[in-house]
Amino acid sequence: MWTFMLVIVYFVLATTISAHGCLLYSKQHAFISEERHEYIRRDIEESNPEAETCRTDVHKDSAKWQGQRKQGNIEQRAGFWGYAMQIIYQTCAGAVLLTDIVFWCVIVPFLSNGHLRLSMFMGCMHSLNLVFLLIDTALNNLQFPWFRMAYFIIWSCTYVILQWILHACGLSWWPYPFLELDTPWAPLWYIIMALIHIPCYGLYALVVKAKNMLFSRWFPHAFIK
Length: 225
Known about the structure:
Elements lengths: L1 H44 L5 H25 L3 H33 L8 H20 L9 H20 L17 H10 L1 H22 L7
Helix pairs in contact: 1-2, 1-3, 3-4, 3-5, 3-7
Keywords: Membrane, Transmembrane, Transmembrane helix
GO cellular component, one term: membrane
């Protein structure tokens, strides 16, 4: 549920930001079309001998304005919500793989008990989150740098510390048996769970890299890295 909540937050935030970006793009496109019509109207109205010179100046101004606009778009930064969306996306990628691997490879075969009652809902929740995230990865062009794995680790540490606090206050049972601190295998379990963060994040980084490589070959005129 902790990871599923993060995935929902990501999709809500990404949908909102994408809708806002589409709105801005439509306004810019309408503004560009209006200016082009104005240039054409000026060319038609020019009937004196200096018309050719005026048309040349107009086209030069238009090209200069387009160049400044492109430069402005390149220099535009994502802003707070844009960076928040990227951080949540990269945290989701590692967290979804981690939870799904733990669920299907550890809990289902070995650790199902009275607290962890398996059901169709739990199976779907630990499968569809990865499916929807992979679909989103195929459609977005967000970066996936290695240093963002730090946010994934911070997210996991926050969850573990929260479980320690809840258990110390007597408010919750251990959600996963391998989080228990009063067992002789606890140090080994925690070391394994810490190390598994690297392949989980690295595997999703390979998925993003493979997408960039394959899509740039399959759709060379439409794909944007």
